[in-house]
């Protein structure tokens, strides 16, 4: 077997990639569903119904899309610079902690000022959390995959300490959660009687801004050049390490925003189940989107569908909802292969 | 000496990549005890043919037989077993392992419980003595010189009792004296009954060492002859397929000093000395050629002038001002154009398109960007202009450069450098791997630039190239630079001596030449 | 409590060895992959799969060694997927490894739920009993610490020496190391880089899975979702710490386990002063510290992370 580079890969081929991956993921799940003695057709129907089949379902899916857009963008921008940020989960909690610290009574400003402040503060801490591993990478060549990942465990334990210890809300009847956010710090609802909140607009805004940034600014150009070929960038006079550090701040910041928007839009107070692994799903989202900021929106919606739809489907059919995680992982692997097929042709001799 | 049935018979091999014929019905015969020179430009199909012979590729049609037996296609293992041995141009050795490890790899059963290192060492020592291949089996490859590494490659083949030895551009990295030594070894080998294919583009070597020669052009055999019945000019014409492009030699009149190095030393971050004592004086309108066997510090000199390394002793002056802490950006701003050795690794960003690659070194200037926003219309126009002026032929300015040929890539880099109107150009191996046409293009553009007043430094391992374009040559050996010498005042033998460490051979000629200038 | 006194205690050292065993399997497995030039970020998931597979086998009525073998087979199978992706298709080793971890973790949880749909407290199995070796086991201190352990622990220690010998003295070991240094050198000698790397990744992944199986079949007696708890990632850090040498991996793992056991002991004594979460952070902090410590000195395999494509040079 040999891989032969394609001279031209058509737009159609490139558009087919994410859909092909989605189909592969659903096929893989059908096998598991058959194993669980259920009908894949019925399961698929329930899946669609549960994810986009009603106003409520759609609003749930869109609400789930919000944090995934943020973490997906965080991963996409980092991966674009070949900075393997696997720590979006920790950075998300970092952002949420910062917002909790400021937004549970320490300061109280009018809403139009309060929210931008909380987002900025959350982004700052998220960025700073990625700064450490990034500096270790640029100075000492310490692999950032392992450090960012290990940092997730450390940050989660720290949040655990906070919500069981100093930040524990005495009014919460013993539940490990922090005090509720002040009213001005809450993102308003987008659609009445649903959990869909203004965070969606913030997330859209972020992805459009990031796209413009990557496409039209010299800073974005630098990030792309460094990611594609750090050696050539260094030779051409692009300050490689500062660019990587700058990218880290953006990436960590976006992940921090995910935490702020979940906290202020959905939960209202800090708990340990703020994120069921949005940081890790962000990797899948970014890869499905081909690291394109606008594609992230679509990919995030797809991954949100997977989890919301699979949740409701598995409840109805009594199948474990881990099937959603399986589907997400399979679609990541499938998108890797299909991206290869866009660039190469496989010859079987 | 040659009998009638050929030992190696390659018959009508054809191989297509996409719509391009890499090999088009190539037929080749080789007798025992014979040296065949295989000639051809880059991209003529030599490498593909050898890859087919060694089973890395499978031919679309045609057959290969060795000693009268058909060779199973697509199996490197079989190829080695029937006695094919190859010395690659870029050595296939693991730097951190010993010579013994590199040679014995894959010669024992993979299910063996203990390596038979003792026996292996004996056999290797015997081969070393028989063929005068001086190298210590216990040493680690990274500590060996280029010439020694090549001997390890030859030993790899001999250890497997190869009967056919193929050498791919074996002299590219050797001094003329080392090349002589290699030729003697090859003679010894054919006397013992081996057959040798010698791939090269250096015609003088073909005449010196081969019994027969064969020229490939565009995947076809275009010429075949006994060496004694042909001459250098015929071979050159057959290789290029027409008259060889002549690089116009223009008269030179060096102007004022643009760059000077005086006793410069460079250390790496571990304190290991990369350059010891480098002195050089470049004037506008002059081309200085830096010769030397690869790995003697040429790349560090290039890095120094490109702004990637800084000197820790001596003085480095550019246009009359001292260079204190150089950066690539700083050097660009002061008018140094750089053509790097590795086009795809450091010169260009393969996944970006032509437009984006052309602004890699000046994206921050006013003409390319404003308030941090890139000017799309400038980028497109700039790309169109440079592609036209420098004869870059490819699918357009939106094409990712990784899909371009080496020649087009180099023209792109050349265009990027020259369009900024530099006062100094640092060109490291500017024609490496290019075909004759593209190489001539690069040479003529560089010469023209120098005659317009640019000072140029060209680093090359190819002496012929330096004799062709340089006004003055300096030889680099172990981080030291010889005094300058004019090509007219020296010859290949003297250069070879200098390249192997006798930098003093120029001491006498130098003084006069320098004072005259 | 007197720390010196603790170091002389049999119980302390037994705990150290117990904690070191799964890490040793994981680290050795990762080491084999990386020596052949393939980074395997799937460790975490493969260990989880090993946990689940070993436990399920025994829970379904199989015997303990059958469980170990089954876990190894499952690990090897996942390794094969990783190898096909990274070696044969040349895909990003980083992203593939993460995908493998996600997939293996999710699948093990899913399968566990399939096997036991409605159970809140996971049922127990009878794990490996500690060995009772005469004579050797009677040596003071050393006897119980090394020989009064699960047979899997002895297997792990044996593997250190076996892999050390394999890499250094066998033709296959030479080929494996060479593949991690320069695949072209291997190809030019008629060996298949693809085959060697595939074998290395499969074998390494099987070892990792055995490390996972140790958790359910020896250290504990039940399977919990999330029980690997970052051990796989720690193994990756330990491989760097060991400079890719099996003997140093042993030293690194034991050192790590000593620190871990130490913090657990100290935690019981002064948990009033420092909250327990900070003790739980220690293994992760230690791993990062180990990476920083070895950052400049590490002589990593030259071809690590570099995919090999036939005919390209």
Describe this structure in words.
The complex is a heterotrimer of chains A (349), B (517) and C (313). Chain A has 349 residues and is mainly alpha-helical. Chain A has a single domain, classed as ABC transporter involved in vitamin B12 uptake, BtuC, CATH 1.10.3470. Chain A is built from 13 helices and 2 strands. Chain A is globular and about 65 Å long. The model of chain A has no long low-confidence stretch (mean pLDDT 92). By secondary structure, chain B is an alpha/beta fold. Chain B contains 18 helices and 22 strands. Chain B is globular, with a radius of gyration of 25 Å. The chains are: A mainly alpha (349), B alpha/beta (517), C mainly alpha (313). At the A-C interface, helix 6, helix 11 and helix 13 of A face helix 4, helix 5, helix 11 and helix 13 of C.
Summarize the structure.
With 349 residues, chain A is mainly α.
Could you say which structural class the secondary elements and strand pairing of chain C correspond to?
mainly alpha
Low-confidence stretches of chain B: 511-517
CATH topology of the largest domain in chain B: Rossmann fold
Top CATH class of the largest domain in chain B:
Alpha Beta
Distance separating the two termini of chain B: 55 Å
Runs of chain C in which pLDDT lies below 50 for 5 or more consecutive residues are none
Helix content of chain B: 25-40%
The CATH topology annotation of chain C reads as ABC transporter involved in vitamin B12 uptake, BtuC
From the spread of the alpha carbons, the general shape of chain B counts as: globular
The quaternary state of the protein chains shown equals heterotrimer
Alpha-carbon distance between the two ends of chain C: 62 Å
Radius of gyration computed on alpha carbons of chain B = 25 Å
Map the helices and strands:
The complex is a heterotrimer of chains A (349), B (517) and C (313).
Chain A: E1 2-5, H1 11-35, H2 40-52, H3 55-80, H4 88-103, H5 111-140, H6 144-164, H7 199-216, H8 218-228, H9 230-235, H10 240-267, H11 278-288, H12 293-317, H13 322-343, E2 344-347
Helix pairs in contact in A: 1-2, 1-13, 2-3, 2-12, 3-7, 3-10, 3-11, 3-12, 4-5, 4-6, 4-10, 4-11, 5-10, 7-8, 7-12, 8-10, 11-12, 11-13, 12-13
Chain B: E1 8-17, E2 20-30, E3 35-40, H1 46-53, E4 61-66, E5 69-70, H2 76-81, E6 84-87, H3 99-104, H4 117-131, H5 146-159, E7 164-168, H6 176-191, E8 195-200, H7 203-209, E9 212-217, E10 220-226, H8 232-240, E11 257-267, E12 273-283, E13 287-291, H9 298-306, E14 313-318, E15 321-322, H10 328-333, E16 336-339, H11 343-347, H12 354-358, E17 369-370, E18 373-374, H13 376-389, H14 406-418, E19 424-428, H15 436-451, E20 455-459, H16 463-469, E21 472-477, E22 480-481, H17 492-499, H18 507-516
Parallel strand pairs in B: 3-8, 3-9, 6-7, 7-8, 13-20, 13-21, 16-19, 19-20
Antiparallel strand pairs in B: 1-2, 1-4, 4-5, 9-10, 11-12, 11-14, 14-15, 17-18, 21-22
Chain C: H1 3-7, H2 10-35, H3 43-59, H4 64-88, H5 93-115, H6 142-147, H7 151-169, H8 171-181, H9 183-188, H10 193-219, H11 231-241, H12 246-270, H13 276-294
